[in-house]
């Protein structure tokens, strides 16, 4: 499947990176969605984990009770979806000093609805561009030419280092507890877009599984010029990936491993169901 906004023309072959593209890349979108799955989905918008005192003896993590995926929302348990942004910004701003997170919080509105839309879109394998454009990193996608062949330049991967840092800093147990406490808010937004009988826990599990099923490249990835769509992956097995998976691959192997490792931990801690076969 082609991706018309992925890369820009590379210019004459050289060992130097090509100029940034004129149009924005879609690659940041899946990066943002992954952070949304882990940060928003884990409910960390509503929690600040302060410094811990050294424990006197090892203690088991507190149990996490699952909240049903359907049913009435407890009255007064969370703010209405349309009025949740202020609380999100106030409390998530305390969660991390990462400038990427602060910028995302300050630059957009309707955060809970954007999250649920992104999760639903990724679960279907498609690009969450419309919901998560505010998470785009700075800089353009670059390629490098060697012996007449084009490869993704390493600098293109490092644009997503901040996403991996934010995701890797999350406390998994706190994420799970808060997710269960705030699930009614996510369910309220999800009911606005979901099909009858579709559960949010199941959709989140499917989205995470799609990301975990994405292969991590070994070595450089070659791209080819495809008239009318800029560039595509040269190898058919990479080009055959779903759009959401391609965006993850473009973040680079190191960032992919950080993200996939944390998603595995979160999936287990959130008590999500098994993903449905695609």
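-> sequence recovered:
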């Amino acid at each position: 499947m082609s991706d018309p906004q992925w890369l820009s023309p590379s210019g004459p072959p050289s060992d130097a990176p090509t100029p940034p593209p004129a149009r924005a890349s879609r690659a940041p979108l899946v990066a943002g969605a992954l952070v949304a799955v882990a940060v928003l989905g884990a409910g960390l918008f509503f929690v600040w984990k302060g410094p811990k005192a050294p424990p006197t003896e090892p203690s088991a993590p507190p149990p996490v009770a699952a909240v049903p995926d359907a049913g009435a929302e407890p009255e007064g348990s969370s703010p209405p979806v349309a009025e949740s942004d202020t609380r999100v910004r106030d409390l998530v701003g305390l969660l991390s000093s990462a400038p990427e997170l602060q910028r995302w919080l300050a630059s957009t509105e309707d955060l809970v609805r954007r999250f649920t839309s992104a999760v639903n879109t990724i679960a279907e394998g498609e690009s969450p561009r419309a919901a998560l454009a505010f998470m785009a990193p700075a800089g353009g996608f670059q390629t490098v030419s060697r012996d007449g062949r084009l490869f993704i330049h390493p600098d293109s991967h490092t644009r997503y280092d901040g996403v991996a840092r934010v995701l890797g800093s999350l406390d998994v147990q706190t994420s799970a507890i808060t997710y269960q406490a705030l699930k009614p808010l996510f369910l309220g937004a999800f009911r606005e877009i979901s099909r009858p009988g579709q559960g949010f826990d199941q959709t989140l599990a499917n989205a995470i599984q799609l990301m975990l099923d994405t292969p991590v490249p070994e070595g450089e990835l070659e791209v080819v010029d495809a008239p009318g769509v800029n560039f595509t992956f040269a190898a058919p097995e990479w080009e055959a990936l779903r759009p959401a998976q391609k965006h993850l691959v473009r973040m680079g192997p190191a960032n992919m491993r950080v993200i996939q490792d944390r998603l595995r931990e979160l999936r287990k801690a959130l008590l999500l169901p098994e993903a449905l076969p695609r």
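The mean pLDDT is 73.
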